[in-house]
Amino acid sequence: MLTTYREKTAALLEGSGRYYKAGRYLDIFLITLIMVNVIAIVLESVPSLAKQYQDFFLELELVSVAIFSIEYLLRLWCSVDKIEYKNLSSSNLKKRIKYFFSPLAIIDLLAILPTLLMVFITFDLRFLRVIRLLRIFKLTRYSRAMQLLLAAFKEEGSSLLAAFFIMSVVLIMASCGIYLLEHDIQPDKFGSIPQSMWWAMATLTTVGYGDVVPVTAAGRFFGGVITLLSMGMVAIPTGLLASSFADQLRKRRDAFNEAVLHSLIDGEIDPSEKEHLEMLRIELGLSHAEANQAIKIMTSQRVHALYCKHCGNKL
């Protein structure tokens, strides 16, 4: 039972329990505000629109930063009542510090920091506009796909680093090879190894801009070999992320299925267990359809397990 304002605020911001509907409405409002901000920032880069609607853009920015700042401070204040921090034995200050350095909290801070710094430091407006576009990453909090992707990056961090290390080695080797083969013929394009890295990067990523190309027979043969290698190199991190993404989704579904089975120990799901499953569903980022399907399947399996497969009598 939620008793304090801080607990109620945490439930509202997380959209859990009886504050589910209110939390969803709040999420929709914040998502809409983020998208309006992104559109406004893009339109503001058009000089004629920036001059004509200067006051509107400024007012929207100030109102948005005020709302995002209030949201950020409230999330920091009630972070001690979040599920992942509530049961920790550390003090409230340490819990808030831990939340302060969490990825989502850093994204929330980046959404308001450029405008706040503008008050104290003079910025190039073009630079400030680009930095403010980082506000779109706040959608990560409300996007299940982005949360799964971040979890996949975290899970496969060491493997991705190994893949990028291998790609870096291949990049250097490709740059050195094309430099040796082409620098005498095209000193303006392959005059040094760092200069040759542009061609190597475009080739290894299969982009192939075509502005820098080898002209000698040996250089073209070498370029073909690098192109064939690049197909496998680019596929490595893609395959790792795809596999980890699917694995994260499977783990979340398995965790919810286990919780449903635990709730069905007594044969039925009571209201308190339903509330717990709903909170778990939100935390895991599962849809209502997925949750209902899991409950239906687990209940069916539970019912079949109570009867003998041979005689059909209840065990």
From TrEMBL:
One of its GO terms (biological process) is action potential. It comes from the Bacteria. Pfam families: Ion_trans. Coiled coil: none annotated. GO terms for cellular component: voltage-gated potassium channel complex. Keywords: Ion channel, Ion transport, Membrane, Potassium, Potassium channel, Potassium transport, Transmembrane, Transmembrane helix, Transport, Voltage-gated channel. The keyword Transport applies. It is found in: Membrane. The lineage of its organism: Bacteria, Pseudomonadati, Pseudomonadota, Gammaproteobacteria, Alteromonadales. This is Ion transport protein. Residues 24-251 form the Ion transport domain. The chain crosses the membrane at residues 28-50, 56-78, 99-123, 160-181, 193-209, 221-243. One of its GO terms (molecular function) is voltage-gated potassium channel activity. It is a multi-pass membrane protein. The keyword Flavoprotein does not apply. SUPFAM superfamilies: TerB-like (SSF158682), Voltage-gated potassium channels (SSF81324). Gene3D superfamilies: 1.10.287.70, Voltage-gated potassium channels. Chain C.
